Amino acid sequence: MAPTAKRGGFANDPDHKYNANDVVLAKIKGFPAWPGIVMDDANVPSAVREERPASKSAALYTIRFFPAADYHWAPARDLNPLSSEDIEAFLGSTQKKSGELVKAYKIARDPRVWNEQMNKVVKEAEEEEESDRKRKPRSGPARKSEPKKQRVESEAKLDEAPATREETEDEMDPQTRKVREWRHKLQRAFLNKDGVIVAEDMKNQDETFKIVEAYTEMTPEQLRATKIGKVMRRIHQLGEVPRDDEFHFKSRAGELMNRWSAILGAH
């Protein structure tokens, strides 16, 4: 079990003031207390900010959790400062040498580089969405104005631009075509034009995720040609996903983003 941070007398202090970049332990119903970092709004995806619940009784802090970079809002009473002593105490006492919670504590030792990478991912995603909005009027003949549709639909359109010559199917190698097939399956399930995610289909999508997660030969060329990373980023930023408490699609998408960012960063 994770240690409770008591140093400084702030254990579950509802009046304690937290600042951006503070490393904390957050209490979430149904989960062990989990390490994360307090975020400022400038580095939080706009889609996530829109989901922020209203609270009149207490200030809510935005927490970015390690290692999947998913988000949670918590009042001070559900947070504890996480010191280096607490981190080492947990890592020294746990019998597990791997797993998500262990990864989270290891990142918490010094999350600066990890957090900067996540901030970069958020910034690039926001810039792509802004660029896409600006390009839309030039993408075809003028259309009659349409009612504003759900965010899920606009996200699904991000990858609908025609492929460049280098990305045509005839010129893709078989494995790259398979990666693109995975992208299409996930896009249809989570980012379809109707904006509806079918709960009964989530078991099938869990199998698709397992196939993608098991693929260890992803290359920078495959990522660029298939744009599967964009789809994972949109899934990671979705508000509500059916059965996500069972299959953890959003956090898994975040982990794949981290893995692929490392691949791109190495080339």
From TrEMBL:
Gene3D superfamilies linked to this entry: 2.30.30.140
PROSITE patterns: PWWP (PS50812)
Region (Disordered): 123-179
Compositionally biased intervals (Basic and acidic residues): 143-166
SMART domains, per the entry: PWWP
Superkingdom assignment: Eukaryota
InterPro entries: IOC4-like_PWWP, PWWP_dom, TFIIS_N
Matches recorded under Pfam families: Med26, PWWP
PWWP domain span: 20-85
Name of the protein described by the UniProt record: PWWP domain-containing protein
Organism the protein comes from: Malassezia vespertilionis
